[in-house]
Amino acid sequence: MPKPEPAFIILTNVTAGGAAVFALWLRDSFVPAPHLVRFASSLAKANGEQDPRPLPADGSGQELRRHLASIDNA
Predict the structure, then answer these.
(1) Cβ–Cβ under 8 Å, residues 38 and 19
(2) CB–CB of 68/23 below 8 Å?
(3) Residues 29-72: pLDDT tens digits?
(4) DSSP single-letter state for residue 32
(5) In this predicted structure, what is the pLDDT of residue 2?
(6) Which end of the chain, N or C, is more open, meaning fewer C-beta atoms within 10 Å of its C-beta?
(7) Cα angle 56-60-65, degrees, rounded to a multiple of 5
(8) What is the pLDDT of residue 73?
(9) Minimal CA–CA distance to 28: which of 64, 4, 53?
């Protein structure tokens, strides 16, 4: 069975906090399953990250900001 191609949304000129607000809305209001929301940043890519990471399946905006910031600081 073929796998569907993922869709991408690119946010530019945003902070981890701004990205967290958007990701929280996307995860909680739009995407049918939370594990489908994955995150990558240009800084993470520059630091050798090759694959997007999944966002936590639940949690507040503050927790998401910490998660996104930790990816950029890895």
Answers:
(1) no
(2) yes
(3) 887 777 778 777 777 778 787 787 777 777 666 767 776 677 65
(4) S
(5) 65
(6) N
(7) 75
(8) 60
(9) 64
Cβ 40 vs Cβ 49: under 8 Å? yes
Q: What is the DSSP letter of 38?
A: E
pLDDT given at position 67: 66
pLDDT tier at 14, thresholds 50, 70, 90: confident
SS3 content of the chain, % helix, strand, coil (to 5): 45, 5, 45
Phi, psi of 54 (to 5 degrees): -75, 145
CB-side neighbour CA atoms (13 Å) of 73: 8
The 8-class DSSP code of residue 9 comes to: -
Q: Give the separation between CA 21 and CA 9, rounded to whole angstroms.
A: 14
- Could you tell me the two tokens for 34? 């939370």
